[in-house]
Amino acid sequence: MDTGSTFLSRTDVFSIATLILARLRRVSGRVIDVMYLVENPAYAEYVVQLAFAAQDEELSRLGMKLQLFVDQEKTKSVPADKSGETEKQPRAYQTESSDELSAEEIYKAQVSHHYIGALR
């Protein structure tokens, strides 16, 4: 039954991400990769930062919703046992934070370069 809740959360994240995609493109001309966002929590955090940086009320609201799912994903990744591994998991996740995404990873995540060549 855990896969059902994972599926629901992914569809919710996908829905929010598509709304962010449309609004962010309209407000700032930026384009994000929705599928990569669903799979990569670090990229999702980066998109949340983009949403807040745009200083748009609707993007801020959507960014807060997405941040809730990212935070929920962080808590799922922490093991339930009380061994020393509980402290190691958050640190490992923090090394993949949006501050440490390389420019190349961000570029690869942008949708625009995926489709332009294929359409011409």
Count, helices: 7
The radius of gyration computed from the alpha-carbon positions, rounded to a whole number of angstroms, is 16 Å
User: In the residues, how many domains can be counted?
Assistant: 1
Helical percentage: over 70%
Strands, count: 0
| Derived structural class | mainly alpha
> Averaging pLDDT over every residue, what do you get?
76
Main sheet, how many strands, which sense, barrel? Answer: none
Amount of beta strand: under 5%
Order of helices and strands: HHHHHHH
Global shape: globular
Distance between termini?
44 Å
Low-confidence stretches: 84-98
Entry keywords:
120 residues; mainly alpha; globular
